[in-house]
TrEMBL record:
Residue ranges occupied by any HTH cro/C1-type domain in the UniProt entry: 12-66
PROSITE patterns: HTH_CROC1
Protein name, entry field: Helix-turn-helix domain-containing protein
InterPro entries: Cro/C1-type_HTH, Lambda_DNA-bd_dom_sf, MLTR_LBD
The organism of origin for this protein: Billgrantia bachuensis
Cited Pfam families: HTH_3, MLTR_LBD
Amino acid sequence: MTTTSPTPGQLLKMWRQRRRLSQLALATEADVSQRHLSFVESGRAVPSREMLLRLTEQLGIPLRERNRLLLAAGFAPAYGERPIDAPEFETIRGVIERLLASHAPYPALAVDRHWHLLMSNRPLERLLGGIEPALLEPPINVLRLTLHPQGLASRIRNFREWRAHILERLARQADTTADPALASLSEELKDYPVPAGARPHLASRSSHAGIVVPLELAMPDGRVLSLLSTTTVFGTPLDITLEELAIESFFPADAATQAALQQLAAAAPPG
């Protein structure tokens, strides 16, 4: 059997429909005629490189997929993809390292598009005790580590709520990027068992109920940390790796968690 690669018009149509835009709406936003856009999508017209870049910008297509569309049209990719340890990324790595370090004594980490761990600070490492060593072998997938029965799952007091939050976020990310690997990861996570004794969904007595879902993580000494998460991304990336990188930072949701994290940092050996 042979497979036919999609044409640039087919890819444009797929992304337009994924963004729930009509031809008229996209044509208006991109300042092109609806007739010409229709011809491009049907293959009756060949788009220029400039038009493709304009349309992909209006559609908010990820840089990785913009390159794919350009290649389908016979053009060279417009965006580079350097590894995080590339010399050109020295300044960026420094920025990320400073962000992570300055967030102490609270945990923070940097991940790639598939949720593989790129960097983390020491407070995060202190929370990972008791995890199956195989889950800590690179590349470490943060979501797998969180929901796996031999990962953090048994320590998450509000497991059902946190799991629903992760799966919903992953579904949005997969829909936005059209990345099949994210859809596959989502299916894998859905198959993980719920820990024995996990409380029912929406049973949280947190003061944040109805506003935000905290991560309630039990520690070996019996204390429960309540953490709120935020996501930071670079605002004007022109490199695929940088666009797909995200920094996840956790903040204490109550005074007890703040004190516990400060105590953990004070008791940790220097280094």
